[in-house]
Amino acid sequence: MTESNLALSSAQIELHRLRTFASSQVIGQEVLIERMLLALLADGHILVEGAPGLAKTRAINVLGKGVEGDFHRIQFTPDLLPADLTGTDIYRPQDGSFHFQQGPLFHNLVLADEINRSPAKVQSALLEAMGERQITVGSKTYPLPSLFLVMATQNPIEQEGTYPLPEAQLDRFLLYVRIGYPEARHEREILHLVQNESRGKAGGGGLLTDFEPIPQRVLFQARTEVLDLFMAEPLEEYLLQLVLATRKPGAYGEDLGRWLQYGASPRATIALDRCSRARAWLNGRDFVTPEDIQSIAYDVLRHRLILSYEAEAEGVSTDQFIHELIRRVAVP
Prior knowledge:
The protein has 14 helices and 11 strands. The chain is of the alpha/beta class. It has 2 domains: 10-200, Rossmann fold, CATH 3.40.50.300; 229-328, Magnesium chelatase subunit I, C-Terminal domain (Helicase, Ruva Protein, domain 3), CATH 1.10.8. The chain has a 5-stranded parallel β-sheet. Strand 6 and strand 7 (140-143) form a beta hairpin. The radius of gyration is 21 Å and the shape is globular. This is AAA family ATPase. One of its GO terms (molecular function) is ATP binding.
């Protein structure tokens, strides 16, 4: 829903149409839907953590059907190899030449399902593609599509046999989103939605085929509008102070200084700026508010902060630290 009566641009109308469509297909996960759209508008990647069965795969699949482009799902397993993502050179015996066979990373939307199931070498191949928007095989470098979004998922329940992402690699993700179980009223809607889909499949039809995908040019237009959105200078200073406070938390309280070992990198500043602008734009406003910054701060900072042993001993979570930070840094 928009928060303003201002005339919406054609790109905003299209993104609202996509948001409505996604909300009708993924029930009870409004935050996840919004964060995926923010990542799309801010040209970044998203890491989603949640228990099995919470529609993580369905959400990115719906987004793939709502946007013009190719979608591919990669199930990360311990025996996966980097070439399974990037592709490899194939030898042609008939003429003695090599031909590059593109891997699944050459799609526009990529789901890296259970990314922590694969070893570091495979994770690094994905994260290099995310950061550089290209891959190198042998002596040749191949550019990835202009529209390229990775949504990686990980299961917080089972840790045995997994390879946790190092903090330095987590920093490559624009957002780190944690999702929970839907409310009781949404559970009934989910049940009815699945029942209707099953009836449609039994009749030879489906519910996800009647949405006109948004052209890529509209998304690129939307990104330009997001970058041009107005942010007042005091708000920009507030955004900077939030990030800088993670590097010198002791200035805002002895307890904060004791809880944090490492603060956020400049990537956090860039992500907070772009995502707060994208959130304001998505909600129909032509200006950023403090609430835009505060609401997205958790998902921007969560994976970029390293707590100290004292914080772990006292049972302090990263979200609790961010909550205290937002409470203590003065709002303009």
